[in-house]
Amino acid sequence: MRAPALIFLIVLAAYALTAAGHLFSPDEEIVFRTTRALASGRGLAIEPLPSGEATRPANPPRADGREYAQYGIGQPILAMPLVWIGNGLARIGGDRAWQRLYGNQPFGPAQIGFAPTAAELAPRWACSWFNILLGAAMAVLVYFLCLEAIETPKYAVLAALLYALGSMAWPHSRAFFTEQLAAFCLMLSFYALARSLRGNRRLAWCLGAGVAAGYAFLARNDSVLAYPGLAVMMLGPIVSAARARGRSFWPAWIVFALPVICAGAAQLLLNKLHFGNVMASGYSDQPEGVKFSTPMIAGLYGLLFSAGKGMFFFSPALALSFFGWKHLAHCWRRRHAAIVWALALMIVSPLAIQATWQNWPGGWCWGPRHIFQIHAFLAVPIAASLAFSWNRGARIAVVVLFFIGAAVQLLGSAVNFNAFYLRFFRATNGAPGYVTMFDPPDQQYWSEYFQILWRQNPETQFHPLAIDPRTGQPAFVAPAPTQNSIYLPQQSVWAGYPALIRHGEVDLFWLRAAGIAP
What we know:
It is globular, with a radius of gyration of 23 Å. It has 2 domains: 20-128, no CATH class; 131-414, no CATH class. 56% of the residues lie in helices and 2% in strands. The chain has 518 residues and is mainly alpha-helical. Strands 1-2 form a two-stranded antiparallel ribbon. Strands 3-4 form a two-stranded antiparallel ribbon. It has helices at residues 3-17, 26-39, 74-89, 95-102, 109-112, 118-127, 130-150, 153-166, 169-172, 179-196, 202-219, 227-235, 237-244, 250-275, 296-304, 311-314, 325-333, 338-356, 379-388, 392-414, 417-426, 443-446, 484-487, 493-502, 509-513; strands at 55-57, 67-69, 453-454, 463-464.
């Protein structure tokens, strides 16, 4: 069996064994509703959630009261076949069977606002497999990019498996979040540009790179944060390769840029049609606004090393990437040295900007979700490191980090991440020792039990926390989740998840199907 097929099957089997079989959050529910609306030919307008999260009113307002998602159209377009499959599966088994398979989720039908019927649950179940399939394909794409760099299949396979099974790519395959698709498109674009340097079908590869880059933007608008790396590829290696063959670089630039421009124009048109202004995106009227207010050093520490969101705690296998950059530069120096700088920018640019984003932690999820796109690129220097130093020490490091990484991912894949926060930070009778630090997004919940007072500094008087009458939410909002789950190990997922597992709160589809877990 060829290496790509073997990688795909291994990763698919691992991800499928830990499948959740349901949606987790309002964010995913909104993406699903957009997918179903497209699949049924109703366009992009959807019924808003009861809480009003993640949708924006149309401008001018629609007569039917429907609204538009704040998320891109990229994933709903690709996920439509899964809705059709789910509609077919809904005819197999009744409502009670699908209720048992879907499970009683913290953000289930009652909270999200849909009927617990087979017709509603089966399509959601089908869409929960989207990132499982895409994650296996992503591992194959990582293999191809590593092979392009080091030209040694053995180490490319190892790097791909370390990424897929030793990083948070595994537990994130369970959710219907859009980061996986954006990451796949960005890596596909980078790989296509690197592949074009070999000379054969150069324009076709550049066109494919442009299509992938444009689609990444339609999947997630923050994909533009990685565009500086693609720009370096176009300005450096693509230009020098064309000149080395005595050709113009303009055709390559044009075929790459056209799809990206079209994707940007499509998004601006949707903004105009949905919200009345080309610059009025679905994020533009959030109560907290669009702010990059976190000090970069604090954000970088949080994203890389904090107990609750540090990348190297949640993706330990990627620590090997530190040792491969020198070797990677040697591999690519023989052709185009600037590729290494481009790859570095694909990692550093999103990381630095996301570190200043006010909501840098990425919400209630396993690991730093907002920098998920950089994880796969970190596998490339790992492949180079192994190719140049495959000695006893390297073999031991690979084995140790692989098993530690896999254990971390199995922990993250065993529990519904919402259950941790609801159990320990939202329940008034939570486990002893979990002390909630006040976080403004929690105000609406806590106000049902307590009167919350706030003062600007110790010299001023206390007063009730103001509520924005337009949204019913606090007038100012701080990053979620609660801060002590990020910075205090004893109050983070490393303590909470094992406690949930000991109490039988395991969230695995196959155990529910077998009647072992609720």
